[in-house]
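For practice. Any example?
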Amino acid sequence: MSIPSYASSVPKSFLAYPGSDFDLESGTIRRIRKPKSSQLHPVKMLKSFGNRVRYFYKLHPFLAFLISLSFGMTILVIISIYQSRYSAVGSYREFDVSLENYPFANLKNLVMVAGHSIYTSKSCEKVDKEDSWFLEPYQKNPGQAATFLAHIEQGIEITAKDEMALLLFSGGETRKDAGPRSEAQSYWAVAESRGWFGKEENVRSRALTEEHARDSFENLLFSVCRFRELTGRYPSNITVVSYDFKEERFAHLHRAAVRFPESRFFYVGTPASSTAREKARKGEALVRQQFQEDPYGCQGSLHRKKLGRDPFHRTIPYPKGCPEMQDLFRYCGAAPYPGLTSWKGLS
C-alpha cells in the first residue's frame, strides 16, 4: 500500500503568539522591561570608588601617596598596640587560670641563696669535702665546700625565724661535666641530707628551687619571678645570702637594676675560705666593674659567660610566671630600666 503524499510530511508547529507580551486590543507587542539593578550594588560601588581613586591619583599623585602612607602606618600602629596588649593580658590570664590557687599564697618575703657549685657525689655523706663538688679551677681551695654549707645553713636560719618567708635555692645546670644537675637542686639535696640543720619541720615545706639562673643578676631576677609564680605576688622583702665580698654587687648593682626598694632589701654575707679570700676579692672587683658597665649582663663578656653556663640549652620559662615583669626581662641597656615595676609602691 502506498502512503499518501500528504501523510509523508510532518506538519510544522504553529506559534500562535510571540514570546513577548501581545496586546490583543491594540495588536502590538509589548517588550518586557528588565528590573533595574539596585543602585547600591557593592560591585558597582567598588568599581566607582576605584575609578575615583585612580582619577584622583592621576591629578595629585604625591598627595595620594602621602594619604596612602599615613593610612597604612595608622593601621600598623593599631595592630601592633592591639597585639601587644592582647598577648600580655592573654598570657597573664592563661597563667592565672592554670594556677587558680597558689601553693604559697600566704608567704610574702623572699630568702634567696645563690648557688656557686654542683654537688656530684653519689652519696651525701661527704658534703663538706671538695671532691664531692664540681669545682672550677679558681674554686679548688681548701675549705671551699664548707663555704657552700655556710650559705645553705644561713638561708635556713633566716627562713626559720620568719614564718612568712619562702626560701629559694637559685642556680641552673651550669657545668657540662657535672651533668644535667642544677646548683639549686644540689643545695636542696645537701640541706635534706643534713636534716635542714635541725629545722626540717619548720623550713623544709617552705624551701624550693629556682633552676635556671646563670649568673648573679639572674639569681635575683629569676628568684623574684619564681616567687611570683609560687605565691601570686611579689616579695615585700628580699634577703640574699652569698659571699660577703659580693655585697656591693647584689645589694647595690643588681638591686638597683631591678629597681627594688633599698629599705626592703637585705644582704647576709659569709666569708670565703681563708686561702682564697684575696684572690676572690680581686676577681670580684673585675666582675663588679663589668656589671657597672652592663647592669643587665646582656652584652659583651658577661653575655658570653652566661651563654657558656648553659651547656644543655635549657629553655628559660620566665617571664611566663611573672607577666608583669616581661618588659624588664627584655630590657638591655647601660642606663637603669625606665619602666614601671610591680613593687614601685613599696617603701
User: Anything to note?
Assistant: The radius of gyration is 38 Å. Confidence is low (pLDDT under 50) at residues 1-17, 88-95. Residues 61-98 form the longest helix (38 residues).
